[in-house]
User: Fold this.
Amino acid sequence: MPSSPYRRPLRRPVTVAAAVAAALAAGLVVLPQTAHAAGTRIHDIQGTTRLSPLAGKQVSGVPGVVTALRTFGSARGFWVQDPQPDDDPATSEALFVFTGKTTPQVTVGDAVTLDGTVEEYYPGGKDAGLQSVTELTGATWQVTAAGRPLPAPVRLDAAAIPGAYAPDADGGSIESLPLRPRSYALDLYESLEGMRVSVADAPVVGPTNAHHELWVTADPKHSRTARGGVLYGSYADPNPARIKIGSLLPLDTHPFPVADVGTTLGGTTEGPLDYDNFGGYTLQATALGKVAGDAPAPETTRASRPGEVSVATYNVENLSPATPQAKFDRLAKGLVKNLAAPDVVALEEVQDDNGPTDDGTVAADATLQKLTDAIRAAGGPAYEWRQIDPENDKDGGQPGGNIRVAFLYNPATVDFTDIPGGDATTPVEPRADHGGATLSASPGRIAPADPAWQDSRKPLVGQFAVKGRPERRFFVVANHFNSKGGDQGLDSRFQQPARGSEKQRTAQAALVNGFVKDLLAKDAEAEVVVAGDLNDYQFSPALKTLTAGGVLTDQVNRLPRAQRYGYVYAGNSQVLDHMLTSPGLSDADYDVVHLNAEYADQASDHDPQALRIRP
Assistant:
């Protein structure tokens, strides 16, 4: 799964008002007469659901105190909070005032009265399925006093945040449901929209990214990993206390903290609670804590013992000759030192020889040569490779990149069995071979014309043997299933969120499962490793399909629960990469090697994995 495209919120694809206007132009709705509500307070605007009861209406004389300003980008504005709250915990007492590309001429602590139009803004567009932000647009205001004290921030901690994440509307929208902030975390956050909140001494569970954001948990005891993150172990528990931290402070005078998972954002971090399309509810800091403690060191797996063959999988994240040499060197160091120079490596996201340039190039020899050269320079073996060039622009990924899976192998320790006939469109088939099993082509691709692989990488199958021992053969299937692009987010207004991409991955899993079944039908003791970025969780329908019938064992389930992860997304430590084995490899030794995902400085967004087998 490629890195999430984090970036600053830009203005502005869809608002309720714009959607209504479009529908009116199409003759789909009758627009009600605009109302003008005088003497309105912010909690009247926010209401007790996710949608303002005054959306699309003009309001005037709305009082509040300026608590924070956003002075960068094209979504500038300021937050105001009413220092005289009502007694309803469901109604937020704060509001964002949108000023577009214009920096607002107000100061924190100003008391103001506001006029403007209430709108519901959907970050990323309404079709993205996210929640909306209630805000004031086209606003004018009067400053009635300066230097007013700010309302005390609401402390977010384990006692304040409910253990249940969101109400279940059976996949429908929760927008119209009354907020229950004491029952659901998403309702609590919505009831605090725009208000000043704080966290104190919060564990970092998602590392600082390139856009100056990180993730913390406000519940230090809930579902922690062995190295300090929070584990995403089921759809039922997305870790409700995860909170994204951004900053409203000038970066030149207040550099954003660079933090790894396992450290702590020490002291108090406070600011208004915002919502965006790259992570949902975000504490936009006006005061930032400091990084405390040290993250665990990157891991190193053990070397193979006599009689063992080591197989690894590594998503190298859009690798091409255009990639800086420093990344090749770091990947090489990881393979040689941290992964102890595996005998076979299944690589994912190997791009063609000119990367994202879309000119019909599909070969990846230059990419793989640059990587293997870097490995030798790092003291590693003289790896050789096998792969099949895809059809141009048929396998998804970055446009023009033609990403594919590929094998590296060490010819000093294992032999690759080359069997001609494999190409981009010809399916590989298992065949009987003197009481054993072999392949119709090696390398070969599994069912490449099947619709399940549309715009997705096709699995690559290779036949290997221990060096000089052709009878000690084993098979490796390298995979990169389709991504989660287009799925509704955990913080969607639709609950439970739809996972539309899951259907294709499940179909892909069925094809790989069927291939392994066919191979085992030829030889019940055939030793098969299925490895790669499957873009899904160990508890997902795709993985249940892949392991159906006891054909394969997902090795991650054999680890202690707190170690079952190799990828960090939105503060959740989770499983996307897998190594699975056929029954003949029941004594395999498996390890997720944590050296990337938990760190702000990473060679890839995925942690590699290693498996030792005895063919």
The longest strand covers residues 58-70. The chain is about 10% helix and 30% strand.
